Structures
1.
Amino acid sequence: MKVMLQHVAHARSGDKGNTSNISVIAYAEALYPILRDQLTAERFKAHYAGVVKGPVDRYEVAGLWALNFVAQDALGGGVSRSLCLDNYGKSLSARVLAFELEVPEALRGALRGMN
Amino acid sequence: MKSLIRIGAGSAWWGDRIEPARLNAERGDLDYLCFETMAEATISAAQVRARRDPTFPGYDTYLDDRMRAVLPACLKRGTRIISNQGWINPRGAAERIVHWLRECGAPKGMKVAAVDGSLITERVLELTDKILENGKLTSTLTESLVSAEVYQGAEPIVAALQQGAHIVVSGRVADPSIFMAPMMYEFDWDTLDHTRLGPGNGIGHLLECGAQVTGGYFADPGFKDVPEPWNLAFPIAEVSPDGSAVITKVAGSGGAVNLQTVKEQMLYEVHDPANYLTPDVVVDFTTARLEQIGPDRVRVTNLGGKPRTPTLKVSIGCIEGFIGEDMFFYAGPGALRRAQLAKKILEERFKIVGLQAEEYRVDFLGLNAIHGAMTPATAPEPYEIAVRVAARTRTREEAFKIGREVDGMAVSGVGMTGKRVPHQDRTREIIGVWSSLVPREKIVPSLTFYET
């Protein structure tokens, strides 16, 4: 079944200059391979098209069931230069919650917020 | 040697709440209470302010509030304080803290240490080569340079503790190092022992953002629920001599310490999780083991460390122009179509008045002001919209044109336009921050001691 990532994982964004890092952390260990296999750096960048303008690196942290995306040129020139109201990009992590994932029916019980 | 020390957070940034610091001081049974009060541009902004306002003392503007809140309990418990509230004037901050210690009845001879040596504005161009962000020479910043500071490590703080300081106040020190210094001092860790400093710095990283590990910047109703999110506590780490720790908080407070809050904070502002660069050590978070061992208690073990790099990071603050911004409002049926006409009017007006902007944007707050170009085309039309205009310009005069054109929308704009009272804060100066590296042996910290 297709579900939004928000049922599979939680996310937080942080800033350093003009670079935003967005961690995506599975709610359960069994859900981590779904993230790892489907949320590639390329798809992540496409999902953030228009805002993330530079390269995106992806780091796998299997022990935390997490992926860490580091997106360059993502904060409008940097926190102090940005014309965006959310100049730190604190809400950027919310965007990935809408990414669509294919999840096996058997894992339905591991998903969050499906009721 | 102690078998366990309790380190609590007192702040995660300048504007942070005061009352959780007081809670940690009064009920945290802390050996150390640590304050982190800076953002990337804090030092540069303080330099600009100090130039214009001779009465500005150059340290945390909430220093008095924070010290008054925590000193009575810290004195009673014997809790030592480590703080970067010194900004551009650590010695001034230390003297002020001595004042508050006396007010709180501290015994005679109690030592407060000021850590200097981070500010290298005069030397930065000779000490640095390339700008990390764009590869250009730092000498290209000569004209716009306001301030430059090195991110110091924990060593000078440890030295101050060894010399009997009860409170240590510094300028720029890497955030996790503030929290690791007490571990190095109490457990006698060598400055080059990366197997201890890695875990210690990793725990420092979990504490440096305060409530972000105890349920702040976390709640999402129905997905990540947090008890009493209006009553959050700042974290406490119970640290063992091997650098493992339990992250927890004062009982009875709101918030949560669980695997999810710890994981989110562990990766916060981290790039390569196997190589988190700090002045003291390179931390490896990928080996971490987390265990929920009780309510609001997460044990963190097996963090890794690698030898520190030969360089220290430098932040270079530059004056880079101005931002002008303002907003006005639409509501009800057709809010979006009126906002769209307003945007068109502004775009034409900017041509007529010859706005010289490096970049400008007109957002519809409620629809696309936060996620901008990522906003889905299918997003529903909101009931209310704020039209928010912002421009980046070379001069304040140009930036001011934004507010003046928004003023014009009041009687010369679109039907049913809501507006704010024209206000003076519609322009602000940009202090851009660039990074570079400096060989660590070029930086020599200095300590100054004050006594009650």
2.
Amino acid sequence: MADNGGSYRKERVDRGIKARSDSVYAIASFRDLSYLLLPRFLPLLVAFILPLIVGDYWGKVLVYAAVFGILALSWDFLASCGLFSLGQALFFGIGAYLAGAFNYYLHWPIYATIPAASVGGALLCTALLAPVMRLRGVYFAMITLVLPMLFSRLIVATKVIGGSHGITNLTPLGSRWFTIYFALLALFVCLFVFRRIMAQDYGLVLSAIRDDDRAVMSAAINIFWRKVQALFIASGVGCFAGALMCHNYQFVGPSAFALDYSLMPLAATALGGPGSFVGAVLGSAVLVPLSEALRAFGGLRIAFYCLILMACIIVLPEGIFHYMARKYHRFERMVKV
Amino acid sequence: MLSLLIYGLIQSVILVLYAYGFSLVYGISGIANFAHGGIYILGGFMTWCFMNALGLPYFLSAIFSVILMGLLGFGLYWGLLLRIRGIVLSEVVVTFVAGIAILEILAWKGLYGFYYNLPVFVKGGISLGDVAIDYQRLFALGSGIALAGLLWAFVHHTRMGLSFRGIAQDERTALSLGIESDWVGALSLAIGSSLAAVAAILVLPLGVLEANIGYDVLIYAVTVAIVGGLESGFGMIAASLIIGFGQIAVARYIGSSWMIIVPLGAIVLILAIRPSGLFGSFKELEERI
């Protein structure tokens, strides 16, 4: 409690709108209603109006922010069942390469390549990583860290699927408006679906696996199978982000496995606050424009993310979103002691 | 055939050198030190700086940089990791990110191309039969083996080594016997970082000093650890031999650009057959249902 001159103290009172639980509310007025709805709909509204205001360049940045947001959501989903990935670039790169290859070699149109790359990539990643699901500890982190690096070196060294030059001349995603709104829509659909999944029994099991896997096993639930399902969902979403981005760039190369795609989702989630999905989106909405503004620093940009990430994890492990939500749900006032 | 044998052995020893520090730290304190690659390159760069900026003799600057990297490892534990000890996610992320920060700052300072390189300790070479081999490779081979022997003796026949093993086996019991786990953890990270610097000084003269090599070192260290099984020193050596000989054989018979397929193939195979590594133990969760 902050002490103000010895005679006042700061009192914190929860707003009396919650009834019984976090998701049941007692609404008595329009004020209560707006108190609940505004923080949910205002950001959505801003996100959909923003493309109309900003110029061409920042419109592109908005697409990047949405794609990184999707990757961060996929990271957060994996983390919410206890799997810490250090290589979202694996999902991103596999999705991008699959979509690129389908488009370039088989001449599939966009509405076929993106779903095919998402599902096919998810199957591939799940098959590759499923054996690790049986292990505990840092194994998953280590393997996801190594695989994208090895894949990009493999492609550069052996010159398969385009080699270090990559595949160019892919079909573009569509007009500027379509690209922006499609990316934003995908981001928000992912956000709401993930939040809905985690609010249900299915999500309860996943978060229980994170908290105590043996307890879940003793409830006669096959945790291996559940983790594989979570991995399938998350890697599908990651591959979707990759497929989207490769059509947006009209290019796919070994840079799709670059460290940026592993590090940025991690940094965004750590900054925004893990576990809530909104934090992941918020974090990438802050970090991606920030990193565009930091382009002048060139190579130092990644070092800069690293410092943010370290500072967040050590100093502010809670994240922006949880901090803001806590403040929003409370009155603070000075009262006489 | 003889050259395959010799160069395969040398490649394996190089891999052991890469992986030794990483395995040691994980085996003792359970921290996956993903900053290993960054510390490796920083060790090489520091040696270069001592030699070219301060004009110290090579031998002295090598020793200084090894000590400095040891201090850096100690500082990494004491300054950062101690605050988040026990939260696996945070430990992993912090070491990973610290390593990348080191590498990216070095790359930004211009650590690429052929400008920076370390001289070899001993010039010249000999030929065994019809295989030409330079002394630096032989030197790396000899010192790698000597180092492994020395460390084994240290861990098994000194008091500090005993406390290291105690912490590795059971942290709480070791604590109750008066072994301080934070102290041991910090020391293990210091020794692991020094080992990375030693590896850098032995291996880097064979090539150029580039920031990007740090990522390769990290990849190989982690790959060897995954394939061999994390806590097992024997597994590390076995995995290094498999991958080292595999790489040289692939370079010989298929083409040197395909060398990278060996670690990837080894990981995929080991995941399919024995996910906890060749000699890894007790990490598989019981499957009962």
